[in-house]
């Protein structure tokens, strides 16, 4: 009798979590409890063919729960994951609240599943979706070739900003659709404003017909929080505390699936063939790498699926021991709900 709770069940990631659970042939749960704030408590959602009423987030809701998944903002996780843990649940948290806590493992099952067992606070963290999108590939390549440095540029989808991000991009796309815009500075913003969209947006600039070199909040020396997460979380997950990492995070007008251009340096020279063998043998990766046949990863190929799609693998011409590659991962699935759920499955197998 293993009881699973999903906190934040009605959000963009929570809904994806329910889709993932519905698609599993079997699940180890005797009960799936849906939990949300007062705004959503009382709603009825279908889970594996049954109506489940969403319960209010309060301490008692965790009684009898074995594993509690949190898909909520940082502040909510910071307050409530310890409450769930204190009531006996293993909390698996998809927020940023605990990722860099030295007493909280940061887990990607195909890279460092063993670490899920070492959880002194009863909390396991799920990485940020941008870091996660490249971890299956980087973990596999690091195991074989020894990673020493990563230089990354992200192309992040609007749904990284949750349902408000999706809604905003769709509204902006409607506002510019059929308009003769994109020829003069400011004309996209004018079209968006003329369509009556509020100036306030999850994005700091128009996203339709644009790319925005910003995700997250401002940190020291001009870095964004998102860029620092890529650096810190990659080091922690891969277990390389001194890994050299530099990231530039960019938002693009894609609804779902983050893409990353990765410049990965290893301890020695790595041929494309050797990299293909390693990537092709990783069950959670689909290799799509035949430029002559027009085969490369795009968000449109990866969205809605579980695997990370990897391609454009090249030996860097002017950088010894370095491979260039392009990876695409659904940020709501492997980047969030799927990895969180896989952690829960990993823990459930040990209970
Ligand atoms: C984003 N990675 O894409 C963030 C969400 N966790 O905005």
UniProtKB/TrEMBL annotation:
Binding site for NADP(+): 10-13, 39-40, 159-160, 331
GO biological-process terms attached to the record: 'de novo' L-methionine biosynthetic process; diaminopimelate biosynthetic process; isoleucine biosynthetic process; lysine biosynthetic process via diaminopimelate; threonine biosynthetic process
Keywords on record: Amino-acid biosynthesis, Diaminopimelate biosynthesis, Lysine biosynthesis, Methionine biosynthesis, NADP, Oxidoreductase, Threonine biosynthesis
Family statement drawn from the similarity comment of this UniProt entry: Belongs to the aspartate-semialdehyde dehydrogenase family.
Name this polypeptide is given: Aspartate-semialdehyde dehydrogenase
CDD domains from the UniProt entry: ASADH_C_bac_euk_like (cd18131), VcASADH2_like_N (cd02316)
Catalytic residues identified in the record: 129, 258
Organism of origin: Pseudonocardia broussonetiae
Function statement: Catalyzes the NADPH-dependent formation of L-aspartate-semialdehyde (L-ASA) by the reductive dephosphorylation of L-aspartyl-4-phosphate.
Quaternary context: Homodimer.
Residues that bind phosphate: 99
Domain named Semialdehyde dehydrogenase NAD-binding: residues: 3-119
Pathway membership, UniProt: Amino-acid biosynthesis; L-lysine biosynthesis via DAP pathway; (S)-tetrahydrodipicolinate from L-aspartate: step 2/4; Amino-acid biosynthesis; L-methionine biosynthesis via de novo pathway; L-homoserine from L-aspartate: step 2/3; Amino-acid biosynthesis; L-threonine biosynthesis; L-threonine from L-aspartate: step 2/5
UniProt cross-references to Pfam families, sorted A to Z: Semialdhyde_dh, Semialdhyde_dhC
Residues that hold substrate according to the record: 156, 251
UniProt enzyme class: oxidoreductase
InterPro entries attached to this UniProt entry: Asp_semialdehyde_DH, Asp_semialdehyde_DH_beta, NAD(P)-bd_dom_sf, Semialdehyde_DH_NAD-bd, Semialdhyde_DH_dimer_dom
Native organism taxonomy: Bacteria, Bacillati, Actinomycetota, Actinomycetes, Pseudonocardiales
Catalysed conversion reaction: L-aspartate 4-semialdehyde + phosphate + NADP(+) = 4-phospho-L-aspartate + NADPH + H(+)
EC number: 1.2.1.11
GO molecular function, one term: protein dimerization activity
Highest taxon, organism lineage: Bacteria
């Amino acid at each position: 009798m293993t009881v699973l709770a999903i906190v934040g069940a009605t959000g963009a990631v929570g809904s994806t979590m329910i889709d993932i659970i519905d698609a599993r042939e079997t699940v180890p749960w005797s009960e799936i409890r849906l939990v949300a704030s007062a705004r959503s408590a009382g709603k009825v959602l279908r889970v594996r063919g049954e109506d489940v009423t969403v319960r209010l987030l309060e301490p008692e809701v965790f009684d009898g729960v074995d594993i509690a998944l949190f898909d909520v903002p940082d502040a909510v996780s910071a307050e409530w994951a310890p409450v769930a843990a204190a009531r006996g649940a293993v909390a698996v948290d998809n927020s940023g609240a605990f990722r860099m806590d030295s007493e909280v493992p940061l887990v990607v099952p195909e890279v460092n599943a063993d670490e899920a067992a070492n959880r002194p606070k009863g909390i396991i963290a799920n990485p940020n979706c941008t870091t996660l999108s490249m971890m299956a590939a980087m973990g596999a390549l690091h195991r074989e070739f020894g990673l020493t440095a990563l230089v990354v540029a992200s192309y992040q989808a609007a749904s990284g900003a949750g349902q408000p991000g999706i809604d905003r991009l769709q509204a902006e796309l409607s506002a510019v659709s059929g308009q003769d815009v994109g020829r003069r500075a400011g004309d996209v913003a004018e079209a968006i404003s003329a369509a009556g969209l509020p100036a306030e947006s999850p994005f700091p600039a128009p996203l339709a017909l644009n790319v925005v070199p910003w995700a997250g909040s401002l940190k020291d020396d001009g870095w964004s929080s998102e860029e620092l997460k890529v650096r810190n979380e990659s080091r922690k997950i891969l277990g390389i505390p001194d890994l050299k990492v530099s990231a530039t995070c960019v938002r693009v007008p894609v609804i779902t699936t983050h893409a990353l251009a990765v410049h990965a340096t290893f301890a020695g020279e790595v041929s494309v063939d050797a990299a293909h063998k390693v990537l092709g043998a990783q069950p959670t990766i689909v290799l799509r790498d035949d430029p002559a046949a027009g085969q490369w990863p795009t968000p449109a190929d990866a969205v809605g699926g579980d695997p990370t799609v990897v391609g454009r693998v090249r030996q860097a011409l002017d950088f010894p021991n370095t491979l260039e590659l392009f990876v695409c991962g659904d940020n709501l699935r492997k980047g969030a709900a799927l990895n969180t759920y896989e952690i829960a499955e990993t823990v459930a197998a040990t209970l």
